[in-house]
Amino acid sequence: MHLWTKLKAAAIALALAVGVLGAQVAAAHHGWGWTSDEEFVLTGKIVAVRLGNPHGELSVEADGQRWIVEVGQPWRNKRAGLDDDLLSIGRELTAHGHRSSNPEQRLMKAERIVIEGKSYNLYPDRAS
Q1: Where are the domains of the chain?
Q2: What SS3 state is found at 81?
Q3: Which residue positions does the secretion signal occupy (predicted)?
Q4: pLDDT tens digits, residue range 22-32?
Q5: Contacts of 46 by beta carbon, 8 Å cutoff, 6+ apart
Q6: Which CATH architecture has domain 40-121?
Q7: DSSP classification of residue 8
């Protein structure tokens, strides 16, 4: 019985550690903690699309480089007026937001998207 109690305690401790680490990793990526404080603007053509939760991602070709541009969750995109047709392959856009604080990553989180001269504000409570 004593060995079983130790194994059970070890399993609980491991599960808690994995849960805490997982939450830290998720928090590090989602939200704004992983981005730089500086405003960033990227103009390019959409070459791949993955929409859905926890957020959409657009692969954008800009100046010969491929960038990942995070857009909002489906409800946020819809609220901003961005439907799936606007976020389609071949469409040119300008994304305003913040890039990764890691300069080696070509990754940004968009606050606002401009397509065909129309602005779609994903985060109206943030200045962009």
Answers
A1: 1-30, 40-121
A2: coil
A3: 1-23
A4: 444 444 445 76
A5: 58, 59, 60, 87, 88, 89, 90, 91, 92, 93
A6: Beta Barrel (2.40)
A7: H
Helix (H, G, I), strand (E, B) or coil at 110: strand
Query: Sign of the C-alpha dihedral, residues 52, 92, 83, 29?
Result: positive
Which pTM value belongs to this model?
Answer: 0.73
Close Cβ partners of 112 (under 8 Å, ≥ 6 residues apart): 95, 96, 97, 119, 120, 121, 122, 123, 128
110 and 69 Cβ atoms separated by less than 8 Å: yes
Strand pairing report for 65-70 and 57-62? antiparallel
Identify the helix (H) or strand (E) that includes residue 20: helix 2-29
User: What is the chain's mean pLDDT, rounded?
Assistant: 83
Instruction: Report pLDDT digits (tens) over 70-120.
Output: 999 999 999 999 999 999 999 999 999 999 999 999 999 999 999 999 999
